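Lab notebook, bench 4. The sequencing result for the construct came back, and we need a structural model before the next group meeting so we can plan mutations. Quick request posted to the team channel:

Model the 3D structure of this chain.
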Amino acid sequence: MTNIGIIGSEGRMGAALKAAIAEAGAALSGGIDVGGDPIALAKMSDVLVDFSSPKALVGNLGAAVAAGRPILIGTTGLDEDHHRTIDDAARHIAVLQTGNTSLGITLLARLVKEAAARLGPDWDIEIAELHHRHKVDAPSGTALLLGEAAAAGRGIPLARHSERGRDGHTGARAPGAIGFASLRGGSAAGDHTVLIAGEGERIELTHRAENRSIFARGAVKAALWLTGMPAGRYGMDQVLGM
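Done. Here's the predicted structure in token form:
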């Protein structure tokens, strides 16, 4: 039986992860939150699942490396320094980092990449997302994941082709841009729509999360897959064999 340790166990995802671990027939080795000891948790776990905060990431990765344990990182709001730290850790242990652990979103990202590659830059891409009022980062990690998929399909860097926060007299839409719109309100677990608009026609690819259990189930599936994998950086698409 695989022992899974939860970092961020008292957050919204914590309870959902505990239920998903039991549902999958795995074991909960323990959980920590702010002020907890990630090294102690890592030593008694086969794999770690981190849904804590960006500021805790460096310490959590260090604990995983020190204990030689794989780690799944579902924390969003990461910057370039965080990703460099993840790359460094992946030289020593298996690390899966993702902006969304939903299996449906993983497939959606593949569809977005395929559409962007085949339709080309003449089709405009806009990504709209809705989350609950308590979410602190925007665009969401999932929206950025979908944006990266679209950019990868076009063979361009997202950072140089994204448009965000339009307000006032902004002028015409930049050719080839990938736009983002973030909505916040109520208790929405997460809705994402990728609009791909051409002349006289448009495609809308949508995923709606009805509750957090979908993320928890996906995270547990990925954590079990990650156990025993060699050192390296992995993604949810590999969990689905894509």
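DSSP finds eight helices and eleven strands in the chain.
Will bring this to the meeting.
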